[in-house]
Amino acid sequence: MQKSFIVIIGIALATVGGLYSLPKVVVNDEKKTLEQPNKETTTGSANRDKGVKEETPQVTESHTESLSKEQQTVIDNLKGVYTKASGKGKIKPAEDLINQFVKYTRYDSAAYYADEIVKIDPSENNLMKAGGLYYEAFTYALQSDKTVKMGEKAREVYQKVLDKNPNNLLAKTNMAMTYTATQTPMQGITMLREVIAKEPDYEPALFSLGILSIRSNQFGKAVDRFKQILKNNPANSKAALNLGYCLAELDRKEEATQILEKVLKNSQDPQEKAAANDILSKLH
């Protein structure tokens, strides 16, 4: 089910970060440390489960396609407005640029302008927006050096958020996931455990742990995570899709079919529906 796995991970990225390119050490450490207290991490059960310049930023994009001429014209016009503005007057044109870059999936460029807004108004809300966009750029980076750079920027911004508000669990969760792609992945896993200890039903952290379990082929553990999410939020179609995938990998075909058919019925996301259909086609 490699195709389905790729689609599922792609769908999950916006929620949990660049897991599809996680270094192998993350998988191993997640097995040994995060899940070790549970008996399911023994060898037998693991095998069973496997069943820049301020006015003219030089932003390097890592994308397979360049902006079209029409798109570039839109951006150039918005940059012109931004450049002519000053002080707080830059916030609105910066927001317009952010919205357009997000529309074009240029998250690194969007993050640059979000960071510029933070320089003018370093509120928690603005910091979270900048951190979220750097996190998206980290998630979708196609080059390892870009992943590292965007991860560093995301952590820098999220740390500022946590300095203001140590109880911002989303900042801590996303920051944790950027650490899982570094040379110190356990720092991120420890942070996720701290989030769960503080709020056991916190969805972003549970989802992150579920995806990490998928990456380490611990499908039984992942099932527990996604079921916990759905117990509190039955409408979470991403959790349902991942649950269906894990059940299929465990050869629990009937349960997987029921879950995936619900995804097809309830989800409004074409990618989720396509992934669900692909998994279902492998079950019959």
Structure explained in plain terms:
The chain has helices at residues 2-16, 24-34, 43-50, 69-84, 91-103, 107-120, 124-140, 144-164, 169-179, 185-198, 203-215, 219-232, 237-249, 253-266, 270-283. The model is unreliable at 1-7 and 9-62 (pLDDT under 50). The protein starts with a helix and ends with a helix. It contains 15 helices and no strands. The chain has one domain (2-51, 106-283): Alpha Horseshoe (Serine Threonine Protein Phosphatase 5, Tetratricopeptide repeat), CATH 1.25.40. Helix 1 (2-16) packs antiparallel against helix 15 (270-283), helix 4 (69-84) packs antiparallel against helix 5 and helix 13 packs parallel to helix 15. It is mostly helical and 284 residues long.
**Biggest beta sheet summary:** none
User: What name does CATH use for the topology?
Assistant: Serine Threonine Protein Phosphatase 5, Tetratricopeptide repeat
Name the structural class.
mainly alpha
Total E-strand runs: 0
Order of helices and strands: HHHHHHHHHHHHHHH
**CATH H level, superfamily name:** Tetratricopeptide repeat domain
Provide the CATH architecture.
Answer: Alpha Horseshoe
Outline:
The protein is 73% helix and 0% strand. It has 15 helices and no strands.
Write out key terms for the chains shown:
284 residues, mainly alpha, Serine Threonine Protein Phosphatase 5, Tetratricopeptide repeat, 15 helices, globular, disordered N terminus
